[in-house]
Amino acid sequence: MKVKHLLVLILLNFGQVVKAQNSGLITGTVQNANTSAGVVGATILVNDVNLQTVTDSLGNYKIKVPAGTFKISVSSVGFVSQIKYNIVVSTGTPQLVNFDLQPESKNLQEVNIKFSKQKSAVATDLVTPLSVQQLTTEEIRSNPGGNFDVSKVVQTLPGVGISNGTGERNDIIIRGGAPNENVYYLDGIEIPVLNHFQTQGSSGGAQGILNVSFIESLKLSSSAFDARYDNPLASTFVIKQRDGNPERLSGNARVSFTETALTLDGPLANNTTFLASARKSYLSFLFKLIDLPIRPDFEDFQFKVTHKFNDKTKLTAIGLGAIDRFRFAPTKESTLENTYILRSTPYINQWNYTVGININHKIENGFLNFTLSRNMFDNKLDKFEDQIMDETKRVLRVASQEDENKFRFDINKFVNGWKIGAGLMAQLVGYEGNLFNKLSNAVYDGSGNLISPQRSIVFNNSINFWKYGAFFQASKNLFNERLLVSGGIRTDMNSFTNEGNNPLSTLSPRISFSYHLNPKWDINASVGTYFKIPPYTALGYLDNSGNALNKNLDYIQSTHYVLGTQFLPKTDLRFTFEAFYKRYNNYLVSVNNGISLANQGAEYTSFGSEPLLSIGDGRTYGFEVFAQQKLINKLFYVASYSYVVSKFSGADGRFISSSWDNRHLLSFTLGYKLRRNWDLGLKYRYAGGTPYTPFDLTASQLNYLSLGTGVLNFNQLNSQRLGAFNQLDFRVDKRINFKRTAVNFYVDIQNILKSKNDDLPKYTFQRTSDNSNFLTTDGQAVKSDGSNAIPYILNTSSGNLIPSLGVIFEF
User: Which of 184, 84, 164, 90 is nearest to 721 (CA)?
Assistant: First the structure.
């Protein structure tokens, strides 16, 4: 303990010594939000230290400030002023702070409107005036329990649920919708895979891929989607990355118990900058230390290159990729739970990448975007009885690839107060699937006569087809900026499904309103219809005769109705309330069991490779309450409560609680800035119990030895619920600034109260006291049909305190 106290004293005193002599740099661009043109002569004010500068002829600026945390405001004649909070400046990597300013109405002074525009609660986004949440780099980086993972941080926002009870997966469930109902765009380029150990056809995974050091901002829209985005049913994520440092080579290195990451950025030429990073996990080493049978490992890579041809044309190239491996190893202590994991979980080998370029060209009162990209996902899963790698013991084989080659074009203009966007997209899709999935063993009577044969899904297929679509979007502030109206329409088609070339079948109009009652209150409303093509795992399915049965599937449809209000008592304090209702049509239903795919959850496997019908319906509804205090007087907080009901129907037409029906969602995140660059963070999450389906005890006993898991009783679909999930996370950071470098030490502790959260029940057989064999009713070896085994439902909970200690070195 004496050594620890001495280290703390050294950090405190050393940090105080270097504080007075060190400064950092803030750089960025101020541009017109409607046209992307740089705002010349805008005033940048760094509050608290009362330093300011103005933008140059291109809208760029830079200002040298003491290392610390600041509030930064920007103002310019003819534009609405803007403030950004919690800007952390160190002596290492320069802090990038960009502003997109909304033009003021030219008639504002003529009609003598009295309310202050700076305090207006109207959303600054002229496309989606409601159902929008924003996250900055600092909010993601410093989130307690977030572990620098965008997907985990997003789970604290209103309306975002958890899956499988424990919150260990990164399934992003928005307002009761499935994880694959979300779409993700990085600098205007779609990234279909956001997580390591992805569940093919369903999304989700265990750990995010994106490097937080790249991210400038993240905008989550849970309704009123911009028509430029295809395939969203639950949300759109629009992620902006920063540009590299144009002045010098800089970067950071992060080392912790679980991973090492290196990020570099700097100039490549006079008008060219780069960002690049690589990360390697140590999860297999950590899991070995805590004696778990699984051995996951991953690496990921990311880059961004920006080149300015001239003042009007800019090229951006991005790329990201990941390699994932999931292995197993014997544990020091043989437990029933560890044995179950070994029997039930497949080996996983995955890799994926996305690369793309975007050319942005400014035109009069607007800009053009040209985007080319390619993404690919390779998924290999293998599972055997008792992990015996013999083809006669195989239970599951998945060897599949998905690839998309995309072209997008859009034109964006600001004319007479109207912000207008229109565009086209085309994609060449490829899918290859080689699947063997044993569903159940053959069943024999006492005389050895076959009662029912083995049931398996087997196919090997390769398909290629085109997807194409078009959109139009327009928005305008009316009645002297009291009413913001935004509307759009798009259609999507494909060359594969039977009705895919009918543009009217996917015509998706949407309209939203935001009415400014007074300086502090808004009323918001929207209605819109959205479509999503079925997953490629479903479209590529073949029956045993080689027929593509799922070519008759329709686009999944969801119609949203949203009504809400926003209260902004101060520029740094925001309250919102929204009620929503979503209606689903053409949802996918399994032919094998008549169950909607929304009621089957998500595991580390492949999803949708079976005969399906577009006959399901769904409805989700509820409300959200949200409060956000920006950093003032060293304190900031975010709190939300959501009530979400999610029900879907299968072949029988009965609406049943879906796997995403958490009902109650509560989240609270608090941050406090102490003296001497110490930061504290606290985050609490609560979620109602996840629905689940109990086991069919007879079928489970017959098939457990082969499948390694139980067989669910779909006659009691989602009739049970796990206990409520709750977790408290804590984080502390200490920054030390040197002359041109900085070091950040952090301790991030998940589940500091060791709360126990239910896992999904597991079906297994009782084993001997030393866990070496199965117990049987007759003392003999267990029979292949399990008839002499002793069934056992393994009910477990997860409640480990998970500490993460690390250091970030900035230079």
Answer: 164
What does the alpha-carbon distance between residue 748 and residue 727 come to, in Å, rounded to a whole number? 13
Least confident segment among 123-132, 229-238, 397-406, 651-660: 123-132
Taking the CA atoms of 306, 307, 308 and 312 in sequence, report the sign of the dihedral they define: negative
* Residue 163: C-alpha distances to residues 196, 200, 287, 640, 789 (Å): 16, 16, 22, 19, 31
What is the distance in angstroms between the CA of the first residue and the CA of the last residue of the chain?
32
Q: At residue 714, what are phi and psi to the nearest 5 degrees?
A: -75, -5
- CA–CA separation, 701 and 197 (whole Å): 30
Q: Mention every residue, 6+ apart, whose C-beta is less than 8 A from residue 446.
A: none
Residue 345 pLDDT level (bands cut at 50, 70, 90): confident
Give per-residue pLDDT as tens, 522-552.
999 999 999 999 999 899 888 877 788 899 9
For 153, 591, 784, the CA distances from 172, given in Å and listed in that order, are 10, 27, 40
* Residues belonging to the chain: 811
pLDDT at res. 73: 93
**What does 724-765 look like in DSSP terms, one character per residue?**
PEEEEEEEEEEEEE-SS-EEEEEEEEESTT---EEPPPEEEE
CA-to-CA distance for 709 and 699, rounded, in angstroms? Answer: 11
Beta-sheet pairing, 99-101 with 23-32? parallel
Name the residue with tokens 């590299």.
244
For 436-470, b/e burial (b = at least 16 CB within 10 A) is: bbbebbebeeeeeeeeeeeeebebebebebebbbb
DSSP 681-735: EEEEEEEPPPEEPPB-HHHHHHHHHHHSS--B-GGGTT-EEPPPEEEEEEEEEEE
Q: Residue 711: which of 544, 587, 588, 593 has the closest Cα?
A: 593
From the list 526, 588, 599, the residue with the least C-alpha distance to 557 is 588
Please check whether residue 252 is in contact with residue 514, taking contact to mean a CB–CB distance below 8 angstroms.
no
Coil, strand or helix: which one is 548?
coil
C-alpha 296/C-alpha 36 separation (Å) is 43
Is residue 164 within 8 A of residue 204, CB to CB? The reply is no
| 532 strand-pairing partners | 556
Which of 755, 689, 690 has its CA nearest to residue 727? 755
Pull the structure tokens for residue 611.
């005969």
Collect all residues with Cβ–Cβ distance below 8 Å to 346 and sequence separation of at least 6: 326, 381, 382, 383, 396, 398, 604, 605
501 pLDDT tier (thresholds 50, 70, 90)? very high
Q: Which amino acid does the sequence have at 671?
A: G
- Predicted confidence band of residue 21 (pLDDT cuts 50, 70, 90): low
CA atoms within 13 A of residue 679's CA, in its CB half-sphere: 26
Do 501 and 491 contact (CB within 8 A), yes or no? no
Q: Are 511 and 227 in contact (CB under 8 A)?
A: no
